[in-house]
Amino acid sequence: MKTLIISYSFTGNNGKLSNIIAERINADFVEIKEKRKRTILTILLDVIFNRTPKIQKSEKIFEEYEHLLFIAPIWFGKIASPLRTLFEDLKNTNKKFSFISLSSGADGVNPDLEKELIQRTGIKPKTVINPLIREILPTNPKPSRKEINTYKISEDEADDVVKKIITELNKCVTL
After folding, report:
1. Per-position pLDDT tens, the chain of length 175
2. 40, exposed or middle or buried, with CB in 10 Å at 0-12, 13-18, 19+?
3. Which contacts qualify for 50-59: CB closer than 8 Å, 24 or more apart?
4. Cα dist. 113→1, 75, 101, 110, 124 in Å?
5. Facing residues of 29 across strands?
6. What does the DSSP 8-state code read for residue 30?
7. Contacts for 92 with CB less than 8 Å, ≥ 6 apart
8. pTM over 0.90
């Protein structure tokens, strides 16, 4: 199945996973770039006011691909706002897609991710995979919220997470 990975990463963690996954499953890869530099304040304002930031669109076209794999962070319980423009483009296409997010997980797995994806795209995702940073870190002592939110995943950790992600993807999608 011809797959396109569409990735956005604020801290670099989801970007690292995207690159490794693209290489492992031999998928095409597009990184979403914003027209303006993002800050924590703009993230918060996007979530509060449901704003859609301007992105630089890629020449890669959805129609060329059988499966789209979105990889992006979760901000304050919501999918990163730079994906909203692409989700709007996805509406009414019946395109198969999946969503992956390496998120802090400070409050646990977000049970509303699939519901938000359906609301924004009009399509039920094939799968939603949400590995948590807090599950990568040692549990003793318990990591603080600050340690979780500022964590940068190592190559070895990313490799381990990607193996688990690909195993999960293969249960729902032929890669």
Report:
1. 799 999 999 899 999 999 999 999 999 999 988 777 777 777 777 777 777 777 766 656 778 899 999 999 998 888 988 888 888 888 878 889 999 999 987 677 788 999 999 999 999 999 999 999 988 888 888 888 888 889 999 999 999 999 999 999 999 988 7
2. exposed
3. 51/81, 52/81, 52/84, 52/85, 52/88, 53/81, 53/82, 53/84, 54/85, 55/82, 55/85, 55/86, 56/32, 57/85, 58/30, 58/32
4. 25, 11, 10, 6, 11
5. 5
6. E
7. 122
8. no
Structural domains in the chain plus CATH codes: 3-172 (3.40.50.360)
Task: Summarize pLDDT for 64-112 with one digit per residue, the tens.
Answer: 899 999 999 998 888 988 888 888 888 878 889 999 999 987 677 788 9
Q: Are 52 and 85 in contact (CB under 8 A)?
A: yes
CA distance 119 to 24: 30
Q: Give the whole-angstrom CA distance, residue 165 versus residue 159.
A: 10
Distances in Å between the Cα of 30 and the Cα atoms of 60, 61, 69 are: 8, 10, 10
